[in-house]
Design a protein that fits this description.
single chain, alpha/beta, Rossmann fold, 2 domains, six-stranded mixed sheet, three-stranded mixed sheet, 12 strands, disordered N terminus, nucleotide-binding, TGS-like_dom_sf, ATP hydrolysis activity, ATP binding, GTP binding
Length: 395
């Protein structure tokens, strides 16, 4: 492996690693009995078993949940169209891992492959003691549990890396060449239980990791700390400071930690069909954290969306950050990208401040806020766009 060039260093590995597509998935990861399936059921309105014993979940289950957005709600209230489509986050419920999973303990190899198939992780951490809820290690120690999961993921990546090196070496030798890839890349980090995403890599190295290895520890992670309802309401727990210290010492940011409570969210869920009762409950307590969990997961995957708005439909179109106008148009239909002419754009903030309850674009044109953008325009989150395109009929 040639030496790294400082000019090529990538500072934002979260965006650089992973697959480029719009239907990326967040997967729930953690030890058994930490609240993964309960969280999945509440987020997605499903009823998967969430029993008090290890490996209640075996096969992964996928579902989606709407991404909450006041901007979308505003546009829907303004137009009141017959069709309304929010953005959605894809979520996968994955069974719990235990120590030794990389060696097959607790069906670990299968579960680790399920993690390999998603694009980001909700790492659920149990931060409450309850003798009625089993713990695989018989005691509550969130830092130990964090170390256990990270160690298993790193060891699985070491296994993936070793097999990749062997396969690549065989291909090169079969072609009569000499294998040059450093077999230690990037094992020096993984052997210390350090995720690959926390390293500094050149663009060429990231491309190699993405194409050849698909390592688990490249995936962006949000840490969801499951508290008792009492601790959640007072936002205080003896477990939170050591968890925060561990996350920040292992490449995470404070915003990557979201304290929540399954106990609290289940109580809120039972009142979902009683809006008056729910409103009264929220006056005396904290709000649900599900909006933050969903929006943080969506953002962590490097996703955003633009709006198309009109009398017939309000719709969010999911794209990756940095997407150019023609590719954003292609999300609607391939012909929109092939025959792209221009994008007529109004920023959402401008629309809301100037529309005054109306739907006409005239006020925006009058003050220069209704823009015509070409093929090099980078679509911004929340843009309201109308595409002009032309595709010649097939002969």
């Amino acid at each position: 492996m040639p030496p790294k060039k400082a000019a090529e260093e990538v500072k934002n590995n979260v965006a650089a690693f992973g697959r480029v597509r719009k239907n990326l998935k967040m997967g729930s990861v953690g030890l058994p009995n930490v609240g993964k399936s309960s969280l999945f059921n509440l987020l997605t309105e499903k009823t998967n078993p969430a029993e008090n014993y290890p490996f209640c979940t075996i096969d992964p289950d996928e579902a989606r949940c709407a991404v909450p957005d006041e901007r979308y709600d505003f546009l829907c209230d303004l137009w009141k169209p017959p069709s309304m489509y929010p953005a959605y986050l894809q979520v996968t419920d994955i069974a719990g891992l235990i120590r030794g999973a990389h060696k097959g303990e607790g069906l670990g190899n299968a579960f680790l492959s399920h993690i390999q198939a998603v694009d980001g992780m909700y790492h659920i951490v149990r931060a409450f003691a309850n003798d009625e809820v089993l713990h695989v290690d018989d005691s509550i120690d969130p830092v130990r549990d964090l170390n256990t999961i990270q160690s298993e993921l790193c060891k699985k990546d070491l296994d993936i890396l070793a097999k990749t090196v062997i396969a690549e070496e065989a291909v090169v030798r079969k072609a009569g060449g000499k294998f040059k890839m450093n077999p230690l890349f990037p094992s020096t980090m993984l052997e210390k239980d350090q995720p690959v995403r926390d390293g500094t890599w050149t663009s060429g190295e990231i491309e190699l990791i993405n194409e050849k290895m698909q390592l688990i520890t490249t995936k962006p992670t949000i840490y969801l700390v499951n508290l008792t309802m009492k601790d959640y309401l007072r936002q205080k727990s003896k477990y939170l400071p050591p968890i925060a210290k561990w996350v920040t010492e292992h490449g995470g940011l404070p915003r990557d930690i979201v304290p929540f409570s399954i106990e609290f969210e289940e109580k809120v869920h039972k009142m979902r069909d009683e809006p008056a009762k729910l409103e009264e409950f929220f006056k005396e307590s904290k709000k649900s954290r599900f909006e933050k969990i969903v929006t943080e997961g969506f953002t962590k995957l490097g996703l955003q969306y633009y709006f198309t708005a009109g009398e017939k439909e309000i719709r969010c179109w999911t794209i990756q950050k940095g997407c150019l106008a023609p590719q954003a148009a292609g999300v609607i239909h391939n012909d929109f990208e092939k025959g792209f002419i221009k994008a007529e754009v109004v920023a959402y903030a401008d629309f809301k401040s100037l529309c005054e309850g109306g739907k006409s674009m005239a006020p925006f044109k009058a003050v220069g806020k209704y823009r015509q953008e070409g093929k090099t325009y980078v679509v911004q989150d929340g843009d309201i766009i109308h595409f002009q395109f032309n595709v010649a009929p097939k002969k």
